[in-house]
Amino acid sequence: MPDNKSWVEIVMMPLAVTLVGTVGTYFLTQQQLRSSEIASQAQIESSENLARSDQQIKVLEIFSEKITSDNVRERELAVRILQSVDPVLAERLAKAIAETETENVSVRKLAQKIVDSEASKGYSFPVIGSFETMPEAIDFIKTINPAPYTPEIYLSDNNYYAVTLGGYLRKEEAATRVRFAQQQGIAPDAFVKNTRTWGENLYK
Fold first, then answer.
1. Which 8-state DSSP code applies to residue 98?
2. Residues lower than pLDDT 70 in the chain
3. Which residue range(s) make up the domain with 37?
4. pLDDT tens sequence across 136-178
5. Residue 200: inside a domain, yes or no?
6. Is the peptide bond before 146 cis (omega within 30 degrees of 0)?
7. What average pLDDT does the structure give for the chain?
8. In what order do the strands lie in the sheet with 152-155?
9. What is the tally of structural domains in the chain?
10. For residue 17, what pLDDT is reported?
11. 104, 120, 136 — which closes off a domain?
C-alpha cells in the first residue's frame, strides 16, 4: 500500500500524546494547571501539525482549557466535548480521565460513558488496500475473492482510495475482517482504520 498509516497516527497522535500527558500530570500531582498554559501548549501543537482540520484544533484547544478548570462542571463539559473529535483520540483521552482516581466521580463516570460509547459505535473500516486512483482500486478488487465479505471503496483523508471489507463497523467486527484478509493472503498488511470522515461507499 502506498500509505497504510491512519490519519490519526500521522496527524492526531502527536497532539493526543501531549494532551494525555497533560491530563496525567494534572491528576497524578493533584494540582490544577492553569488553562492558559495548556491552551498555549495546544496552540503550539496545532501550528506544528497544519494537516489537522481547523475544527479539530479548536475543539482540542477548548478541551485543554476546560479539563484543567477548578470547576467540576467545566471539566464535565470538557469530557462531553470529546464526542466531537476523532473517535480514536476521544477514546484515548476519555480513558485517561476515567482511570484517574483523583478526579471527581461524576467526571470519571462521564469519561467512562465516552469510552463505552466510542467502543460500540460503527466507525471502523477493515482496510485491505490504498490506491491513488479509483480505477486502480477497482482493478485490485477484481483480483481478489473476499467472500463472504463485499469489498467497498472510500475516499480517505489523504485523498487515496481505500479498499475495505465493509465500512462503518464496530471495532471487533472490523478486526475480524482484517484477520480474515491476512489469513487468506488477500492483504497481509491489512489494518483497522477508525474515522468518521470517509463518507459513502464509492463502489456500488
1. H
2. 1-53, 119-120
3. 7-120
4. 999 999 999 999 999 999 999 889 999 999 999 988 899 999 9
5. no
6. no
7. 78
8. 152-155, 161-164, 124-131, 191-194
9. 2
10. 54
11. 120
Element (H, E) at 182: helix 171-183
CA distance 53 to 31: 31
Asked if residue 17 is part of any domain, the answer here is: yes
Q: What is the pLDDT, as a whole number, of residue 15? A: 57
pLDDT of res. 164: 98
What pLDDT sits at residue 150? 95
Assess contact for 195 and 87: CB atoms under 8 A: yes
| Torsion angle (degrees, nearest 10) of CA 6, 42, 90, 92 | 80
Cβ contact 32:68 at 8 Å: yes
Task: Give the cell for residue 123.
Answer: 466507525
The angle at the Cα of 105, spanning 107 to 24, to the nearest 5 degrees, equals 65
Residue 64 lies in a domain: yes
Helix 87-98 vs helix 105-120: crossing angle, to nearest 10: 150
Of 96, 99, 95, 94, residue with least CA distance to 84 = 94
Q: Which residues pair with 193 in a beta bridge?
A: 125
